[in-house]
Amino acid sequence: MAHLLGSQACMDSLRKDLTDLQGTIVDVFSRAGPVCAPSWKFPDRVACDLDMVSLLEHYDYMPGDPEFTQLSHAVLLELVIDR
Q1: Is 47 strand, coil or helix?
Q2: Confidence at residue 51, expressed as pLDDT on a 0 to 100 scale
Q3: What is the mean pLDDT of each run of 10 residues along the chain (83 residues)?
């Protein structure tokens, strides 16, 4: 499975999953109100205040930079846990 770390197809799928998950969270928040708990990934912030758009823009597939792409892949996986 390590060979998939940083693959563009995996990251595209993961980004879509995060976008769908965030949409569901926003829908639930609109009905029940936000859950203001500390973020698992960013413990100094509240999870409901994370700017997912900027995080998804920053942690993206970078052709020619496998180290950053692998880091981005790991961060996106951690954001799924955080959500």
Answers
A1: helix
A2: 92
A3: 74 93 92 87 89 93 91 92 84
**82 close to 40: Cβ distance less than 8 angstroms:** yes
- C-alpha distances in angstroms, 19 versus 14, 64, 67? 9, 25, 24
Asked whether 69 and 62 are in contact (CB, 8 A), the reply is yes
Distances from the Cα of 70 to the Cα of 8, 26, 46, angstroms: 10, 28, 26
Could you identify the residue written with the tokens 């996106």?
76
**pTM for this one?**
0.80
What residues have CB less than 8 Å from 76, skipping those under 6 apart? 11, 14, 15, 18, 56, 59
